[in-house]
């Protein structure tokens, strides 16, 4: 959800990851906005969702620069609070390092940052064959089914068919091209984070059953940057889809600590 009104203190910007768009948040933004009584803005990266016809950026810096332009065009001014998942979290980290006065708080979900973790933790090796087929030969429906299986525990639930059909409809209406997928993937692979953490309050959330990224990535990052980490024992990569209530609870507890 988005508005053209000036940004209020505490406005949250929500960012998703590779090939995903704002509609993949589902009901989470509305729930989040109700729980925190704060404005929520969901943005798409170029090449995804409402911007699917645009060429994706091939580096993280260009991604956050585009986000800043979008926010300015929508009439929203900093500072922002950013909740970001996966590739979106990489973008948020770099943005906060370059413009700390614009990002007042960061919540990062299941991210992985070089040089802190090796490639085989940042993308689990058992997924390489499926991802190669995904890029080369998979149909749109097969792509979405694979993403659901790799990123959510909902893939084994009774809700899975409805979720999958919804995602397929998103992909048909706003398809991410193979070229844009590769550009986004290159941006994620080539990004190198600075040794020091951004100089803003930072919370890490991670799913211990993440089938896409090894949870050790978040554990290592929390140790290096000396920031709080909360682990969900049962969730996979897309924790807001698997357990939105838990995400909101962890953020509320953390805000109560950092805002005293």
UniProtKB/TrEMBL annotation:
Spell out the molecular function terms from Gene Ontology.
Answer: monoacylglycerol lipase activity
Q: Name one GO biological process term.
A: acylglycerol catabolic process
Keyword Transferase, does the record have it?
A: no
According to its record, what are the GO cellular component terms?
membrane
Kindly list the organism's lineage.
Answer: Bacteria, Pseudomonadati, Pseudomonadota, Betaproteobacteria, Burkholderiales
Q: Give UniProt keywords alphabetically.
A: Hydrolase
Which Pfam families does this UniProt record tie to the protein?
A: Abhydrolase_6
Record-given protein name: Alpha/beta hydrolase
Species source reads: Undibacterium parvum
Residue ranges spanning the membrane: these are none
The record ties this protein, via SUPFAM superfamilies, to: alpha/beta-Hydrolases
The AB hydrolase-1 domain, residue ranges: 13-249
């Amino acid at each position: 959800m988005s508005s053209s009104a000036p940004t209020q203190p505490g406005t949250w910007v929500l960012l998703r990851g590779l090939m995903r768009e704002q509609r993949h948040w589902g009901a989470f933004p509305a729930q989040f906005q109700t729980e925190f009584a704060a404005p929520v803005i969901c943005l798409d990266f170029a090449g995804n969702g409402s911007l699917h016809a645009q060429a994706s950026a091939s580096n993280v810096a260009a991604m956050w620069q585009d986000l800043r332009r979008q926010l300015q065009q929508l009439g929203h001014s900093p500072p922002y609070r950013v909740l970001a998942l996966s590739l979106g979290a990489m973008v948020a980290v770099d943005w906060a390092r370059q413009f700390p006065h614009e990002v007042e708080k960061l919540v990062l979900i299941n991210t992985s940052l070089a040089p802190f973790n090796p490639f085989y933790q940042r993308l689990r090796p058992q997924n390489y064959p499926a991802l190669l087929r995904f890029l080369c030969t998979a149909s749109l429906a097969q792509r979405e089914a694979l993403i659901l299986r790799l990123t959510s525990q909902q893939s084994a639930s009774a809700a899975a068919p409805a979720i999958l059909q919804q995602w397929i409809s998103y992909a048909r209406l706003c398809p991410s091209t193979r070229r844009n997928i590769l550009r986004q993937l290159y941006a994620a692979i080539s990004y190198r984070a600075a040794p020091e953490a951004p100089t803003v309050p930072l919370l890490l959330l991670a799913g211990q059953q993440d089938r896409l990224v090894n949870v050790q990535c978040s554990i290592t990052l929390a140790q290096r940057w000396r920031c709080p980490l909360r682990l969900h024992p049962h969730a996979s990569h897309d924790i807001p889809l698997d357990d939105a209530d838990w995400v909101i609870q962890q953020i509320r507890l953390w805000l109560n600590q950092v805002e005293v």
